[in-house]
Amino acid sequence: MELLEGEKEVIKTQVSEILGQHSHHCENLVPMLQEVQNKLGYVPELAMEKIADALEVPAISVYSIVTFYNQLRLNPPGDHQIKVCLGTACHMIGGQIILNSFERRLEIEEGETTLDRKFSLERVACVGCCAIAPVVVVDDYVDGKVTPTRVDGILLSFENNSNGVKKEQEQKQGEGKNNE
Amino acid sequence: MSDKKLQVEKKYLDIKTKAEEIIPLKEDKTVVMVGTATCGKAAGAIDVREAFKEEIKKRELNAEVVEVGCIGHCYAEPLIVISKPGFPSLCYGNVDEGLSKMLVENYLEGDDPCYEFALVALEPNEEFPTFTDFPRGAYEGKIILEQCGLIDPEDINQYISVDGYHALVNALGMEPGEVIETIKESKLRGRGGAGFPTGKKWEFCANAKDPVKYVICNADEGDPGAFMDRSILESNPHQVIEGLIICGYAVGASDGFIYVRSEYPQAVRRINAALEQAREIGLLGENILDTGFNFDIEVFLGSGAFVCGEETALINSMEGKTGMPRHRPPYPAEVGFRGNPTIINNVKTLSYVPHILLKGVDWFKGIGTPDSPGTAVFALVGKVENTGLVEVPMGTTLRSLVYDVGGGIRNEKEFKAVQIGGPSGGCLPESALDLPIDFDSLQEAGAIMGSGGLVVLDENDCMVEIARFFLDFTQKESCGKCTFCRLGTKHMLDILKEITIGQGEKKHLAILGELALDIQNGSLCGLGKTAPNPVLTTLRYFMDEYEEHIQGRRCPALMCPELINFYIVPKKCSKLCSACVGSCPVEAIYTREDGLKAIDLEKCVKCNSCPAACPPEYDAIIKVSPPERVEELEKENA
Questions:
Q1: Chain B environment of A142 (Cβ under 8 Å)
Q2: Residue A161 — very low, low, confident or very high, per pLDDT cuts 50/70/90?
């Protein structure tokens, strides 16, 4: 993905800051990459090169680590990250249907980011909330017992206001009461 | 030695007395405990907590709201416990903001405990039943989950007040060899899946010549459908930390690590807070309790690779390499992290250690079976009434786990299978339900104990699909080192995919069996060796379903999307209702000329929304398989 204006500078300063906080030992490679991702949302090529230089290892070794571990990503995430859980419990109760609904609505595939970088969609193996399957994690908010119509609701709430998640919760409770 | 023992005891008593002074005494203060583990949060526990705080403040009551972990009854989240002086501690389930406000008004301010909303009482009383009055409570026997959800995981004093860190004191008063001997005698087996005797492992490591040793707690719980470790770390982190310190003391290590998934942010936060508190009062760090024993613990964040649950892969990953397994032997207990002897124990294994040292070997051996003493912890999920985290003595049958503890199958459906052990385990049918749960008998049946995920499947679950699902998981997670695992699982997966879309052939079944054997024999680590298990067990117990898919091109459980269609039965549909029309995300449902509804199969994405939306009094939308069945039905109903 092409870097936007100014992004290069941000990456450089962040990476040198992180490199300054750790001893340049191989054992710190994964923690450093995790920090890069925490700061930037992903691990850009430039960051991998910088870290490889500092650790005096070939850049390909860093690349192999980044591609091996599921958590580390090569593309910038959207403003809102949607993670659909596809653990056993979620799968058996229709997690795939939920993932398909998001794909259909956002017009992207799993693992991609929308063109306006507003949403990114990914699957996760298990978030450990199997009792309320199927589960979707939107940003850091966990939403349980999701249905395809609820998918529309989640996305709508982002369109209607910037403070989507909170509004979301309120709506959900409203729905819960109506059902009873 | 006895001097040292007395000295440690005294030091501990000081700490305990202090802890008891600090924590609010139950006798004179009302405490509201809100379960805010990840599962509780997902169900809305934060809003409940805020509602309680707000209402208590508004009414100026003398009550405290504390956050606790998970009590294990996930089906009723969000859960709270209220203990008010003069009343038994009561647990309330499915709490929302409205109920919170009502409880503050009627119970905290007034004296009406609102029994109609209460789930269970925690201690025996004359008013309300306790856990042991329900089948689930009667069959459960909690050891490592006992305090989960009842103590504040972010307050070390609460753990100390229930005798926490007392086992550490006992251990420090013994020679390291005696500690190992105790664990060996207890016959504690590793809860990570394989069931290797923990004491033996410790002994190997203690006997290794290298002076620098490491102990690691494996909390890389990547198994989809399992959340025991997360829940324990979020609900009672000190129990694990205490176990790890004792392990370090026994084998002679001064550095410990907790390797935890980064997908568990709440667990990571609570462990870090717990470590900090333990350091503050001298239970961790230099010269623990003035005994001259130095030990500290660091947290290492895993980056989401299932194979890193395997101990040698975990070590590689901590050393900054890709998490690929190594050859064993040498075992990590001899050559492990940084080339030094290393103990790697699962969260649950370490959690048992303090209990064994505190209550004794005989007590521990009195629970469970002779060869697998203790309890088994399961994340009970799927189609049972009471999902959640359960702890039963080893030797309990699967039947009582599903029907007594789990409360039976949801919606009066028929039981089909239990999937036990996650991607490495297998599916066991009705006929295997009377098997006692222990390491050895499950292995004989083709499944494994695994780390403890247990998914109950009913008549609507397709066994071919579940085999495909698990293989899809292991295939993606295979690290790629061994050819058979890398390519063999891919080939098996391709075949299963073809079967689930109705393109299976008879010869496929034989190829699946052959590949499964090759992968088992040709793989280095547990991931590859057990990857074919879900396929093998479903072939063994549910061959008829495979044959239906291949020969009849139909899915008997009506689950595989390519093999089913949705159909609205005109006789049942009502002109007055259009619930399904609104529920369809792709506008595939239309109103016919006669006012009834019908589905445009070209547009339908088989999302299952319309049967859920159709009111139960009509129940007009059905699934049919094979898909061509719709045409026949249309003719019949024309």
A1: 38, 41-42
A2: low
A173/B43 CB distance under 8 A: no
Instruction: Give the nearest chain A residue to B72 (CA atoms).
Output: A131
What are the φ and ψ backbone dihedral angles of A115, each rounded to 5 degrees?
A: -60, -35
Average pLDDT over residues B314-333: 93
- Cβ-defined contact of A25 to B479 (cutoff 8 Å): no
Position B74 scores a pLDDT of 83
pLDDT band at B39 (very low <50, low <70, confident <90, very high): confident
Distance between CA atoms of residues A12 and B387, nearest Å: 48
Tokens of B78: 């969000």
Query: What does the CA dihedral B625, B628, B634, B635 come to, rounded to 10 degrees?
Result: -120
Indicate which of A92, A100, A102 best probes the interface with B, i.e. most B CBs within 10 Å of its own CB.
Answer: A92
To the nearest whole Å, the CA of B227 is away from the closest chain A CA by 5
A-interface mutation test, from B49, B74, B94, B227, most A Cβ less than 10 A away: B227
d(CA A137, CA B266): 14
Query: How distant, in Å, are the alpha carbons of A81, B329, B347, B517, B527 from that of B319?
Result: 30, 19, 21, 33, 21
Residue A164 has pLDDT above 60, yes or no: no
**ipTM of this model?**
0.83
Query: Please, which residues have CB within 8 angstroms of residue B351's CB and are 6 or more apart in sequence?
Result: B144, B232, B236, B239, B240, B243
Cα(B576)–Cα(B615) distance, integer angstroms: 12
Given CB atoms, is A128 within the 8 Å cutoff of chain B?
Answer: yes
CATH number belonging to the domain at A80-178, selected among 1.10.472.10, 1.10.10.10, 3.30.300.30, 3.40.30.10: 3.40.30.10
CB neighbours of residue B615 within 10 Å: 11
A/B interface, count of CB pairs below 8 Å: 151
Share of chain B above pLDDT 70, in %: 99
Q: Which of B171, B189, B234, B333 is nearest to B35 (CA)?
A: B234
DSSP structural state of residue B397: B
The answer for residues whose C-beta is within 8 angstroms of residue B342's C-beta and 6 or more apart is B205, B213, B214, B215, B216, B315, B332, B333, B336
DSSP strands (E only) in B109-254:
118-121, 214-219
Nearest CA in chain B to A151: B585
Residues of B within 8 A of A34 (CB-CB) are 262, 301, 303
Q: Where are the beta strands (DSSP E) in B1-101?
A: 30-35, 63-68, 80-83, 90-92
- Whether the CB of A52 is below 8 Å from some CB of chain B: the reply is no
Q: Supply the DSSP string of B515-558, one letter for each residue.
A: HHHHHHHH-SSHHHHHTTHHHHHHHHH-HHHHHIIIII---TTS
Gyration radius (Cα) of chain B, Å = 27
Is A12 near chain B, with CB under 8 Å? no
**pLDDT computed for residue B38 by the predictor:** 81
A61 neighbors A71 (Cβ within 8 angstroms): no
Q: Which of A27, A130, A140 sits opposite B318 (nearest CB)?
A: A27
Domain boundaries defined on chain A: 7-68, 80-178
pTM of the model as a whole? 0.90
Residues of chain B with Cβ-Cβ distance to A105 below 8 Å are 585
Give me the residue from B264, B382, B388 closest to A92, CB to CB.
B382
How many CB atoms neighbour CB B606 within 10 A? 19
Mutate to test the interface with A, among B38, B39, B74, B589 (most CBs of A within 10 A): B39
* Per-residue pLDDT reduced to its tens digit, B389-429: 999 999 999 999 999 999 999 988 999 999 998 888 899 99
Residue B96: name the closest of A118, A19, A37, A176 by CA: A176
3-state secondary structure B16-38: HHHHHHHCCCHHHCEEEEEECCH
